[in-house]
Design goal:
Elements (H helix, E strand, L loop, with lengths): L1 H20 L1 H8 L1 E6 L2 E2 L3 E5 L2 E3 L1 H17 L4 E6 L5 H6 L5 E2 L13 E3 L4 E10 L14 E5 L4 H7 L9 E5 L2 H9 L5 E5 H9 L7 E13 L2 E3 L3 H17 L1 H11 L15 H8 L6 H5 L3
Parallel strand pairs: 1-5, 1-6, 9-10, 9-11
Antiparallel strand pairs: 2-3, 3-4, 7-13, 8-11, 8-12
Helix pairs in contact: 2-3, 3-8
Length: 298
């Protein structure tokens, strides 16, 4: 029995490796490629309704798909697969999603299960509260209710922060970022802990942006990147070459300006988040270092 299990495990591992290595062959044969997208990941990836998805990371992935089409020698049908914080990694692993183009943090644990392209955004985790909230820092969270999104690492990051030591708070979870924001909007939570750009985007597109504010110290710095199946080197090479080309031509700066500094659909709201020095450095010096490397610097 033990020998049989070992043989089965080896076969499954070989199948997974072959699948990773054959993504380009897979999309060439099927004539389609599936992009993993988010419903409400700020201006990185969100829906306009009617299966229409837009955002900074969507645009980068669409550019990568153009180069994938050149590599396989044919036009591909692009399919959009909505993913959540909970299912995004399994859907990449099992082949449902070829390129995950949302707001996924590249960390050491996830690198064991999937591969990441070079960093295209760098997040700073912060807290969103009502404008009249007395909460100004982590130290003010004693006996408060903290919201975050199921499947994310934000509350874990908060609990590890040195200023959160001995601070007891209650946790509630939204099914996605919009749901978590609603918990604060409706008064069911006092604060929403999440990536700063996502918070800014949700506030900008809310009915009354002036009702909310982002407060507190930076809890962590997190590199965000496009995700593919583990060891999918051929696909990664194309995606990274696409990113490098966009950096060299200045297109990625134009995209950043479009999504973070200019009015965005459907309401014309502005996120108003200038490119950070950390992101400028990551684009100038391409890498896919995990967030643990950034943690050493804060």
């Amino acid at each position: 029995m033990k020998k049989t299990l070992l043989v089965l495990a080896a076969a499954l591992a070989a199948t997974g490796l072959a699948q990773a290595q054959d993504t380009l062959a897979k999309v060439k044969e099927s004539g389609s490629i599936t992009m993993g997208v988010r419903e409400s990941s700020g201006v990185l990836s969100y829906t306009l309704g009617g299966a229409k998805y837009v955002g900074y990371h969507i645009a980068i992935c669409e550019k990568a798909i153009e180069n994938i089409e050149k590599a396989v020698g044919k036009k591909l049908t692009v399919k959009y697969q909505p993913v959540t914080s909970q299912n995004r990694i399994p859907l990449v692993q099992n082949g449902t999603v070829d390129l995950e183009c949302g707001s996924t943090t590249n960390n050491a644990t996830r690198q064991k299960d999937v591969s990441f392209a070079n960093t295209t955004f760098v997040e700073e985790v912060r807290m969103a509260v009502k404008a009249n909230s007395p909460i100004k820092s982590v130290a003010d969270l004693k006996d408060k209710t903290v919201a975050t999104t199921t499947g994310t690492t934000s509350v874990q990051t908060l609990r590890k922060h040195k200023r959160a030591e001995s601070v007891e708070f209650k946790e509630v979870f939204g099914k996605d970022h919009a749901d978590s924001f609603l918990l604060v909007d409706s008064g069911r939570a006092d604060v929403f802990v999440m990536d700063g750009s996502l918070l800014a985007g949700l506030i900008a597109r809310s009915k009354n942006p002036a009702d909310f504010k982002i407060v507190g110290e930076v809890l962590s710095v997190e590199p965000i990147a496009i995700m593919v199946r583990k060891d999918d080197e051929a696909l990664l090479k194309i995606v990274n070459a696409t990113i490098a080309g966009m950096v060299k031509s200045g297109e990625i700066n134009q995209l950043y300006d479009k999504w973070f500094l200019q009015p965005t659909p459907p309401t014309g709201a502005k996120v108003g988040l200038p490119m950070s020095d950390t992101l400028k450095d990551a684009l100038k010096n391409p890498n896919n270092r995990p967030m643990e490397d950034y943690a050493k610097k804060i």
